[in-house]
Amino acid sequence: MGLAANGSVRVEWVVAVSVAAGAAAVGYLAYKKFFSKDKCCSGMVNLHIQKDNPKVVHAFDMEDLGDKAVYCRCWRSKKFPLCDGSHTKHNDETGDNVGPLIIKKKDS
Ligand code: FES
């Protein structure tokens, strides 16, 4: 095989590898766009709490709240639905700004 033929084969390989890499990139992006589960779960608020329930609901009687009750709104508390301060770590890690709902009796 001559030098010119060797160079021609090399060019064909470069073209083939480039086309294959481009096709793989397009396929990967199409997969992420249409089939990836990341898309469906990235907006999910509740990551861990009572995932076997279709809807997480808590109810309390006003008379049982006492002078002050602090409820979690970040869904990261280990004491959910009560706030345990986990929102601070969540905010530090994500840049979010969530905090608890505080219900208290008026100062008399
Ligand atoms: S732990 Fe969730 S708001 Fe505090």
UniProtKB/TrEMBL annotation:
Lineage at the top is:
Eukaryota, Metazoa, Chordata, Craniata, Vertebrata
Q: Membrane-crossing residues?
A: 13-31
Q: Any one Gene Ontology biological process term?
A: regulation of autophagy
Q: Which cofactor does it need?
A: [2Fe-2S] cluster
Q: Where is this region: Disordered?
A: 85-108
**Compartment list:** Mitochondrion outer membrane
Q: To which species is this protein native?
A: Anolis carolinensis
- Give the record's GO CC terms: mitochondrial outer membrane
Specify whether Ribonucleoprotein is a keyword of the entry.
no
Q: Where is the Iron-binding zinc finger CDGSH type domain?
A: 55-93
The protein's matches in Pfam families, at most eight in alphabetical order, are given as: MitoNEET_N, zf-CDGSH
Topology versus the membrane, per the UniProt entry?
Single-pass membrane protein
What GO annotations for molecular function exist for this entry? 2 iron, 2 sulfur cluster binding; L-cysteine transaminase activity; metal ion binding
Provide this UniProt record's keywords sorted from A to Z: 2Fe-2S, Iron, Iron-sulfur, Membrane, Metal-binding, Mitochondrion, Mitochondrion outer membrane, Transmembrane, Transmembrane helix
What is the protein name given in its UniProt record? Iron-binding zinc finger CDGSH type domain-containing protein
Q: Which domain of life is it from?
A: Eukaryota
**Which SMART domains does this one have?**
ZnF_CDGSH
Q: Which InterPro entries match?
A: CISD1/2, FeS-contain_CDGSH-typ, FeS-contain_mitoNEET_N, MitoNEET_CISD
